[in-house]
Design a protein that fits this description.
heterodimer, A: mainly beta, six-stranded mixed beta sheet, 54% strand, B: mainly beta, four-stranded antiparallel beta sheet, 0% helix
């Protein structure tokens, strides 16, 4: 089955800095890669996703890049703000209604004012 | 609000007991997923149902079981509860043709 590794487990940055979280996956057939943000005690919420026919996708201060050859994808957050502090999860699956998402173990991002 | 409804929000019960967690998916979603999140742990996939049928099984203990009913709501049954079962249990749902899953607010289970 699919295995997703996520690094780092914790990341501390100063407000205004950029943050990068990296994930690798094992199944070359995976082609859907979402990122979820989970604030303390809350549900994970989808913030951005990318499919394998795209190398990069941006949404305001958030971007995701995908390298299918190397089987890794990354989340980039620019101009970080304290409200970006949360746990971020990457995930991977095949593009199918029956395919289950496999999540990484999460990265706790702390943005200090 | 994701549209996925979970009840109860909080539950405290004793070891050895049995509880049932309930989930209503978003309107139109046929797939329901159950995840367990323990303290400092990631999202552990338990089980997936699609239109009433079991589709995939993850790290679900034999003491746990689930089902999806004709109206598409799902229940997760946890029996012979142990202290280690204390966790946040999430239900999620997705559209028939897609992978994007939307999580409910979760059910906090505390076993004492």
């Amino acid at each position: 089955g699919e295995n997703v590794e996520q690094h780092p487990s914790t990341l501390s940055v100063q407000e205004g800095d950029s943050a990068v979280i990296k994930c690798t996956y094992s199944d070359s057939a995976s082609n859907y890669f979402p990122w979820y943000k989970q604030e303390l005690g809350k549900r994970p919420q989808l913030i951005i996703d990318i499919r394998s026919n795209v190398g990069e996708k941006k949404d305001q201060r958030i971007a995701v890049t995908l390298n299918k050859t190397a089987k890794h994808f990354s989340l980039h957050i620019t101009e970080t703000q304290p409200e970006d502090s949360a746990v971020y999860f990457c995930a991977a699956s095949k593009e199918s209604g029956y395919s289950t998402l496999t999540f990484g173990k999460g990265t706790m991002l702390l943005v200090s004012p | 609000d994701s549209g996925v409804t979970q009840t109860p929000k909080h539950l405290i019960t004793a070891t050895g007991q049995r509880v049932t967690l309930r989930c209503s998916p978003r309107s139109g979603d046929l797939s329901v997923y159950w995840y367990q999140q323990s303290l400092d742990q990631g999202l552990q996939f338990l089980i997936q149902y699609y239109n009433g049928e079991e589709r995939a099984k993850g790290n679900i203990l034999e003491r746990f079981s689930a089902q999806q009913f004709p109206d598409l709501h799902s229940e997760l049954n946890l029996s012979s509860l142990e202290l280690g079962d204390s966790a946040l249990y999430f239900c999620a749902s997705s559209v028939p043709s897609g992978n994007t899953i939307y999580f409910g607010e979760g059910s906090w289970l505390t076993v004492v």
